[in-house]
Design goal:
This protein is an all-alpha fold. The protein is 56% helix and 0% strand. Helix 4 crosses helix 6 and helix 9 crosses helix 11. The chain is elongated, with a radius of gyration of 18 Å.
Amino acid sequence: MTEDELFEFFRRLAEDNPSPETELEFVNPYTLLVAVVLSAQATDAGVNKATRRLFAVASTPEQMVALGEEQVREHIKTIGLFNTKAKNVIALSQALIDDQGSQVPADRDALEKLPGVGRKTANVVMNCAFGAETFAVDTHIFRVSNRTGLAPGKTPLAVELQLDAQVPQPFRLGAHHWLILHGRYVCKARRPECWRCIVRDLCAYEPKTPAPC
């Protein structure tokens, strides 16, 4: 994809959705961090359903630790891998209390030291909570980047680095949201809906999927 095509790709996505946001519900950087940790191998809708009640009683690290692992597990038992995730939520909450003054750090390295937090989670938190121009490559972004030819790569990190090097202003802050939403609702895994895609003429994917009869 040329520089002009890449700019036009994001221009169209931005025009279609000028203020993209994560679909995870949160009330502060801490609850965002917890929600993103819980979202691994789970849908945002499923996480939101569980965290509405959880965050109503625990929206700070101290409150979460006081709630305890058993109660956290009870709140999130509808989410995949809930046992491990409950342990991580309590452990990262205690780590924030002990090492970060109960504040979520805006630094990727510090975030990745927290239990259950990997690079993708750290990138989401940095972008959504602190306005950093990061690119959190999940399965949707990985698929869209490779399928369209936008930023091909064999690993999520390779795609992330390509996006970081190529995405121009003024699209850098919202880029990962646009790509996630495009992959979730249009450029779907099994059957991309090319017939209603606003960037189909810029996309390298062939053959384009025809509209259903």
